[in-house]
Structures are given as C-alpha cells and as structure tokens.
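Researcher: Next sequence.
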Amino acid sequence: MPVDVIMPQMGESIAEGTLVKWLKRPGEAVERDENLFEISTDKVDAEIPSPASGTLGEILVQEGQTVEVGTVVATILKPGEAPAGDGEGAAAEAGTETPPAAAKAEAQADGAPATKGATPAASTRQAAAGDGGDETGNGSGALATKEQLRRTRSSPLVRNIAREHGVDISRLEGSGLSGRVTKRDILAYVEGGREALAAPAGEPAAVPRTPVAPQRLEPAAMAAAGTAPRPFADGDRVEIEPMSIMRQRIAEHMIASRRTSAHVTSFFEIDMSRVDELRRRNKESFLTDSGVKLTFMPFIIKALVAGVKEWPLLNASIWNDQIVYKKDINVGIAVALKQEKGFGLLVPVIRHADELSLVGLARSANDLAERARSKKLSPDEVQGGTITITNPGVFGSLAGTPIINQPQVAILGVGAIEKRVKVVGPGDSIGVRTCAYFSISYDHRVVDGATADHFMLVVKDKLESFSDPSLK
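Model: Next structure:
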C-alpha cells in the first residue's frame, strides 16, 4: 500500500507551509530519510526527508502551493506497486468514496484543518463529526471555533495591524487558506473597506471572500497593500517574478518592526587589536583542540553578554505598557543565505549564551550557520532570541543601521574589521590598529540614548581589554 507523504508540523505555532521545490520526480527511486522536497514556513526553510524507501508516486501538491500541516503532498510506492491511474481506482482500493483532492477541497471549504498524519479524507470525516464543521480540532484534542482558528492562524504582522487599529479579526473572513485573514485583507479593511466589511450590530459579519479594495490610498499605503503604481512603462525591458516565501517573510517582518519600534542607531569605533592578537596567536591550537575555527564572532558575543548583564534593558521586550526583562540571554546571529538572485536571511539563536565558554560559543555559532545554509534548522532554533547580532562587515560594509528583530529592543551591527592609522599612546604617536565600527539600533520607546551608549561602552571595554583563561 502506498505511503503518504505529509506536510510536517514544523513548530507548535505553524499551521501551514509552502512547498517550494520537489527534489525528486514521479517514478524516481527514493531512499528512506533522503531529502524529498523543500518547504518554507513562517519561521524557517527546510528540506523534508522521505518517510519510506520506494518510488515517488503521485505528486498531489505542486511547487508554490501553500497547504495546511498534515496535508498529503505525495505518495511513496513500495516495490511492485503501480501508480494510481485516474484517482478513482485508487480511492476505491482504499475503501473511500471521495478522491483525496476532492476530500481536501471539501475539508478546506468547511474550514477544517488537516491534522498531522491524517489524509484529507480523514480530516473531512473528523470535521463532519464535529457538529457540522462549526467546531474543529486544534491539534491538541481541544475544540476551537473557526473564528478562533482564523485569529490564531493570522500572521504576527496581521495581528499587529489589527491590534493597532482595533480590528476584531474574528469578524473578517479572509481570502487565505481556510478563511485566514491575510495582510492584503486587513490593509484593505483598514484603509478603505471598513464600512463595507462591517456587519450590523447583532448580526454576523457577512464578508465577501475577495477583500474590498480601498477607495483612496496614499502611495505608502498602496505599496503596503500591494497596489502600488506600476514601476515600469509599456515596452520597458523588465523581468517580473514573484517574491520567494523567505523574501515575503523578511519584508513583512521588517515593515512590522519599523511600524512597531521607534528606531534610533548609535555608532562606536572599537579597537579590535587585542582580540585580533589573541585570535591569531591561538587559532591553530583552538582548531586542534575544539575542531572549529576561531573567528571574531565568539569574542563579540562574549562582549555583548557582558553589556547585557550590566544593562539588562537591552535584553528586554515591550508588552503593551509594560517592560518584560528576559532572564535568559539568547543571542540571535543573522546568517546570509546565498540564493539564485541575491541573498536571504535567517537568524538562528544561541540559547543561554551567558553560560557558554568561548569554545562553546564558537561551536554553536559555526554549527547554526552551517545548518542554516544547508536548510537543516528546526523552527525552535530560530525563535526565542532576546538580542541579535548582524555582521554586514563580512561583506565589506563599514557600518549599517540594522532593523530591530521583533519583539526585541536592540540589535548590534558589526562593520568591517580592518587596519587603520590611529593616534595612539600618551605621546600622540601614530600607529596602525585593527578597528571596526559597531552600531546599536535600539527601540527609543524604552531605551534612551544614554542607556544604549553605556551598554556600548561595556562592549567596547570588554573587546579592547579582552581576557579569557582559555587563551594564551
């Protein structure tokens, strides 16, 4: 009997995934645990292994499609099994009356999410058992209304916009999967469709599937809603292609951060000569003893941790009108991912960075970066960061003004580390020093300039006078 290949659950808060690319074609042999397809979710991109050995049979979800967790995306045929013909025979052999594709469509029309490991037909039967589909399973055994599901499945960006404008998402029926309210839906509602979408008092909301287009939009709002003026004329030589899922997520996250936080950036020049000397002197023994290269990054993380311990406000978050001080120091490290056209970005997290030695930090940073580039990260490894480091200097940039990684309040930017001619010593002599510009972008709603500057003074002092018992 064919083995179902399902869209996996890539984290508790993730309800759906986009199938980006099939790595095998129907009829090709596949081994168990061999990478079969690539997916992209709200949190991470990943390559998904085959659940069994055999031959890839029918592909049910095409590249570019977004489906719910638990949806059957393909089948694996065991040796001697033949692919299904027109789908009806396969359904009859399985003892069902509804072909998988039809069952999937029926389940989605009812608003019933597919459950992990269940076929679409099974999901439909579960929905039917739940009083006509008014209630559906939420994956934990509890029952939730469709309105609750729409609210929880909307992206953080959509929920932030709704909260900012006092919109009850449960009263909207979006154009996304299973009625999910999308960014376009909420912006259309906020900018111009509020009257059309609002239901009379005491009556349920009657919202069309297609969002009401705003009547008048400023240019910025038009761009945010995806209705910006066409940036090319007829006859122009252009190439148009949709944004990748990762690019869309980055765009949403950055726009949400700029809308949320009051960004301010301060710059410090830091003398890295002491760190450079320690690194060059110990790099061979470090590689021999630990098996990883000694880069500047573990030194910078150590200095960042020292600054956070003295100024914990930089490791906090804002919750309504309250400040949440994080006791754990979980450092996100931005990793650039080379793609066909440009780069993508992921921010894996080193948890409990304050408890790790220089060796531990080097191992963690190298491991996370390598697995980010090979799409081996789990969603948990890109969540829970409390402060972030980004290193544009690796590409030669002298300085930058990075955007805060929400819900954090600060991000440290590291510019190019290079030799510079400086005035040094009490006699104002001229010398060559290894220096870099560091930037700290912070949320001025809660972090003032004096706090950020004192934090950076700790980072600067730690790096310029670095000492560690593991180094000679």
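Model: Confidence is low (pLDDT under 50) at residues 85-144, 194-219. The chain has twelve helices and 21 strands.
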